[in-house]
Amino acid sequence: MATHEQLESTSSRPVLDPTVNVQEKSSKETAPSTALKRNAEEANLDEKTTIHIGTRRSALAVVQAEMVLADLKKAHPDLNYEIHAMSTMGDKNQTTALHDFGAKALWTHELEAQLMDGTLDLIVHCLKDLPTQLPPKCVIGCIMEREDPRDVVIMKKGLEYKGLLELPEGAVVGTSSVRRSAQIKMRYPHLKFKDVRGNVGTRLSKLDAEDGDYSCLILAAAGILRMDWGDRITQYLDSKTEGGGLLHAVGQGALAIEVREGDEKTTAILNKLANEESTLAGTAERSLMRTLEGGCSVPIGVETTWIEKGKLLMKAIVVSLDGKEHVEAERLGEVLNAKDADEFGWDLAHVLVEKGATKILEAINLNRPIIKDGGGA
Ligand SMILES: NCc1[nH]cc(CCC(=O)O)c1CC(=O)O
Fold first, then answer.
1. In angstroms, what is the span from residue 222 Cα to ligand 1's centroid?
2. What's the pTM?
3. Alpha carbon of 22 to those of 26, 51, 53: distances in Å?
4. Which residues are within 8 A (CB) of 73 and not within 5 positions of it... i.e. 6 or more apart?
5. How far is CA 8 from CA 3, 85, 118, 201, 275, in A?
6. Probe residue for ligand 1, chosen from 126, 129, 183, 275 as the CB with the greatest number of ligand atoms within 8 Å
7. Which of 12, 148, 171, 242 could form a disulfide linkage to 221, CB 3.0–4.6 angstroms apart?
8. Helix, strand, coil % over all residues of the chain, rounded to 5
């Protein structure tokens, strides 16, 4: 559980030091009560209700929380909002390779503890970073409209190349995602891969460093676009781009908001932010991943396209870490509600299993003695 010193408020209106804020609230209580109850009591006060928005502290995470705040303000101008940006264990541990790191919950559990004790009302996440199984009493309150879900190439400043096809033998691609490296190895066995850690800004400075090792980075378009760095994108990597052929991570590009199970007040407030197509596609992708028991650091790629309203096309791939083996499948079908989406993902996962996905996934998990799942990448 985090200390209050780890909380930082970046609200757009003047806010008290959150430490003081929290203590003030507690001192108002007459009888000992849980923070959850305190929250419910506050909702009935005359003064404006404040919605406490939790986020990790990276620049991208804070930008995302600010986007959510702006949307909430539009939907409910009568409420107050505060952003609490918090360092998480995942942010602090920059040295352990992501796939050795273990449960993705590491990225979020301090925030979830604060959600549980009522300090926070909601947490803004990238859907991609959310484990398929959330901790008890935590649920996804809404999935928002998806930003571009594709992966992209960002070439080092000063290099004349734009895409992977042009890179010479031995050029170093910076990525910490085995999903990305394994899929690129399939097509480009002559390229080299090197881990690159830190938030998106740090990664870009490592790329551009004069004495740096990397020729390019592979990142999600969504993060780059939200940071307003879209002019750095030199190639989009989706199944349709020539020389691309990379399927993105489950949930990539969509923001998800985590709330307490049964918190009807916050869930209702989030209603207007939900996007149906993103929700159904995200649900189908997560169902596929859950069925295959893959984490974010297992090389499972997906691509979902709405062919027409209610008709979803989903491609999926499972690749061995060295890129030498893979199974691919796709499915086209009607997805009108969450149940359809769940079944759709489950069905496609089973097609992959029939084609041999289990063998690839087991080999990966056997080589990873610590924990199967991985951190965000
Ligand atoms: N933890 C890394 C992470 N989590 C989500 C995104 C991209 C933004 C998104 O998918 O919404 C990124 C950065 C990246 O992969 O380039």
1. 7
2. 0.82
3. 6, 14, 14
4. 79, 81
5. 11, 5, 16, 20, 29
6. 126
7. 148
8. 40, 20, 40
ipTM of the complex: 0.97
- Beta-carbon count within 10 A of 110 CB: 21
Q: Which tens digits make up the pLDDT trace of 310-362?
A: 999 999 999 999 999 999 999 999 999 999 999 999 999 999 999 999 999 88
Summarised one tens digit per residue, pLDDT across range 160-181 is 999 999 999 999 999 999 999 9
Q: Is 129 a catalytic residue?
A: yes
Q: What is the average pLDDT across 293-313?
A: 87
Percent share of the chain, pLDDT over 70: 78
* Exposure b/e, 265-275, CB count within 10 A at least 16 = b: ebbebbeebbb
Helices and strands of the chain, counted as H and E runs: 12, 14
Domains (range + CATH), the chain:
4-144+255-274 (3.40.190.10), 151-237 (3.40.190.10), 278-366 (3.30.160.40)
Name the amino acid, one letter, at 277: E
For ligand 1, the distance from its centroid to the CA atom of residue 14, given in whole angstroms, is 30
Contacts of 23 (CB under 8 A, 6+ apart): none
- Give the dihedral of Cα atoms 352, 296, 152, 158; nearest 10 deg: -130
